[in-house]
Amino acid sequence: MTLATPEAVPAPRRTAVGVRATARIQAAVRGGTTTLPVLDGDGPFELRRLRSRGTEARVCVVGAMSAPLGGDRLRIEAAAEQGAALHITSAAATLALRGRTSEHATYDVRLTVGEQAQLHWLPKPLICAAGSHLRQTWTVDLAPTARLVLREEQVLGRAGEPPGHVASRLTVRRGGCTLLDQQAAYGPGAPGWDGPAVLAGHRAVGQLLIVDPAFEETPPEVHLLGGAPEGGQAVLAPLAGPAALVTAVAPDGLRLRHLLDAAHRLRHR
């Protein structure tokens, strides 16, 4: 296994408006277990290899500097090759902040999962601080027999402050065909984002996407989770394909995670 040493990692490209940085993770099967032939951090991304669980390789993304700030262009590329099992998490929440420029920041995630491979993308939440402006995308390409668990959580504003603006898009293709393509925007400038049809006054929103070929034989059933609406609610619904999508809103990040975790446990019943 070859890992990038600190000397081999290129320095982030700083421009007049922000940082340009890309992190790359590649998982492949060697000798019956998953290894990490590519683990390259860049700029604010420091990648740490965690203890494996069985045949699964695990990676933690550690923030090495404040990011994303206005004007930053950040990207993570992760690939699980045929038969590999890869789990990616983060050490702490990602904090989007206002930068020295009014230019928006971008945070792009590109995931590729090969035949009989699986990838768990389970980072800590994104917190959009007051004055921040972030555009975030996930682009996922799955082989027909691939499995995916993807969680994304957004907390709008720190305690006692107004929210920043975040626009996100999630695009998932399976076997070259679109499985899911959706986008949303929250915070100042996004029409109706705080109304009863969207967040209804809540400040935390998230999703859990599970793609599993086993759903072709036994598709998941619709479930509503949570009690009174003011405490947060989530709905688990099957997609038109071997997948389930959980969408949740809650007053804060803690209750949002409880809802998403409860929905994830339903999958194993």
Structural write-up:
It is a single chain. Helix content is 5%, strand content 51%. Residues 1-12 have low confidence and may be disordered. It has one helix at residues 253-266; strands spanning 13-14, 19-30, 33-40, 45-53, 56-63, 73-80, 85-90, 94-96, 105-113, 118-121, 126-128, 133-142, 147-156, 165-174, 177-186, 204-211, 223-225, 233-238, 243-250. It is mainly beta and 269 residues long. The protein contains 1 helix and 19 strands. This is Urease accessory protein UreD.
The geometry reads as globular
Number of helices: 1
How many β-strand stretches? 19
Radius of gyration: 18 Å
Strand composition percent: over 45%
Structural class: mainly beta
> How many discrete structural domains?
1
| Secondary-structure element order, N to C | EEEEEEEEEEEEEEEEEEEH
Tell me the distance between the termini.
Answer: 37 Å
Residue-averaged pLDDT? 90
Largest sheet: 11 strands, mixed
Low-confidence stretches: 1-12
> Helix proportion of residues, in percent?
under 10%
Outline:
The chain is mainly beta and 269 residues long. The protein has one helix at residues 253-266, and strands at residues 13-14, 19-30, 33-40, 45-53, 56-63, 73-80, 85-90, 94-96, 105-113, 118-121, 126-128, 133-142, 147-156, 165-174, 177-186, 204-211, 223-225, 233-238, 243-250.
How do the helices and strands line up, and which of them pair or pack?
Elements: E1 13-14, E2 19-30, E3 33-40, E4 45-53, E5 56-63, E6 73-80, E7 85-90, E8 94-96, E9 105-113, E10 118-121, E11 126-128, E12 133-142, E13 147-156, E14 165-174, E15 177-186, E16 204-211, E17 223-225, E18 233-238, E19 243-250, H1 253-266
Parallel strand pairs: 2-6, 5-7, 6-9, 7-10, 8-11, 9-12, 10-13, 11-13, 12-14
Antiparallel strand pairs: 1-2, 2-3, 4-5, 13-16, 14-15, 16-19, 17-18, 18-19
